Prior knowledge:
Mean pLDDT: 97
Order of helices and strands: EHEHEEHEHHEEEHEHEEEHEH
Strand content: 15-25%
Low-confidence stretches: none
Amino acid sequence: MTDYGRTPQFGVFVTPTVELLANTFELAALADETGLDLIGVQDHPYQAKFLDCWSLMGMLLARTERVRVFPDVACLPLRPPATMAKAAASLDVMSGGRFEVALGAGAFWEAIGAMGGDVRTPGQAATAVEEAVEVIRLMWSGERAVYSGGEHYRLEGVHPGPVPAHSIGIWLGVGGPRMLRALGRSADGWVPSSSYFPPEILPGMHAKIDAGAADAGRDPASIVRVYNVFGRVSDSRSDTLFHGTPEQWVSQLTDLVVETGMDTFVFGTDGDDLDQVRKFATDVAPAVRAAVDARRGS
Length: 298
């Protein structure tokens, strides 16, 4: 059993298509009103029907007052980290500290290459992520000039800024052993998805993150563990994970917190269904918080 003792958080996963734009704005308002913590926006620039993730995130921040927003996850091969750091800090300043960053190493390489991005081997992609974390931190440092010499990304005396309004988290959507250890050494959070990483394999992945944290003298509990969960809240019980009644959801997510080590759940559903997100926000999230407190004896 692994419980890092973190307070559970909840969010909604947004599909940034042109057809769903009005629905996306309603989702953002719903998240703000119902007490959800996060809005995660897919970043796939090569998808013809997708709006630009970063432009959309700015609009969502402008239309909300409380909820935080992050790219879930940013496509690093098509987003130079120095300019991404400046965009992130700008959004954070303009929103009063409501922006986080999650990075992905890249996956759909043919599409990335077709758009002019670097097509990388797994090793190159891992190195690029490690370098990007360093570059982004330097760009937020407030120093007079910063330098970084990497294989993929370099800073050569650039004047960084602006400084973010709050200490922005750098989360990584990674899964390989090397990158999990690197995450533990230098990043602030982990963002896996249930469709790729089912619950039964999460403990072994936590162990690699924690080993990396130990290498760097960091507390593993300082690392946010965000889980993108895709399913449906219904009136009928189900034998399928993340499909079923609110009570089943509460039981499953509570176990994921106190036994499996996750602490933040970003809910995605077919068609970005408003009613589904409302059920998750009102019938599931508060009950999970209460159940986790009860299991911890709080």
